[in-house]
Amino acid sequence: MARSLSGRVALITGAARGIGLAIATRLAEAGAHAIIHDRDAAAATAASADLRARGLAASSLIADLAEASAPSAMAAELKGSGAEPDILVLCASVETLETWDAVSESAMAAQTEINLHATLRLLQAFLPGMLARGFGRVIAIGSVQETRPNPTHFYYAATKIAQTNMILNLARTTQAPDVTFNILKPGAVLTDRNRAVLAQPEREEQVRARIPLGRLGKPEDCAGLALLICLPEGSYINGAEIAVDGGMRL
């Protein structure tokens, strides 16, 4: 693969596994220095070590985005190491399955803190540097739940569509020639988070029946689109909501 992103630094939050790791891997393969953020220190360290063992540029960054000070501390650490990100992939999220009449205060607080508050704090920490340097790519990982929510995702879906509104607002109002903002919306992707749900009796069959392609997605299905957005060939993609769901939203 041509190393089209050589010299770029990509910060991917929640990237120790799943979609975040798949995107980090693809960006690293294209030449970027992939910074794998996670609150799971062991998993993030192992993931970045695996990439380095393949001759790719990668490092880990450990922080708990539930802490209000985390994004500013992350920015200070990366600036000190000379690795300020040109690419920010907002993948970390909290997803609690509760119906509208059972949403708990703790679940509301956790999902709001990570899915919304941390998004804004990360943008405030890293977007100014992108604007000053004249290049930036912000990619938020949304969800098919935004357009076709399940009853068990009542509050989660609301936080994700609010996050999308933030990104679209910036796409319309920032007006910097080479700083873009986009949303990828995965559907039923086979990640660690989804495996437990899909393992329930008949659950996987029910999910497959809602997908026109008739199969589950893989984390890697999101990585190619993320790469395209970051490449020169994707520089005119701005404010896009791109579904990666096999048609599940239809």
Automatic annotation (TrEMBL):
Pfam families noted in UniProt: adh_short_C2
InterPro entries: NAD(P)-bd_dom_sf (IPR036291), SDR (IPR050259), SDR_fam (IPR002347)
Signal peptide: none
Assigned protein family: Belongs to the short-chain dehydrogenases/reductases (SDR) family.
Protein name: NAD(P)-dependent dehydrogenase, short-chain alcohol dehydrogenase family
Species the sequence originates in: Bosea thiooxidans
Lineage: Bacteria, Pseudomonadati, Pseudomonadota, Alphaproteobacteria, Hyphomicrobiales
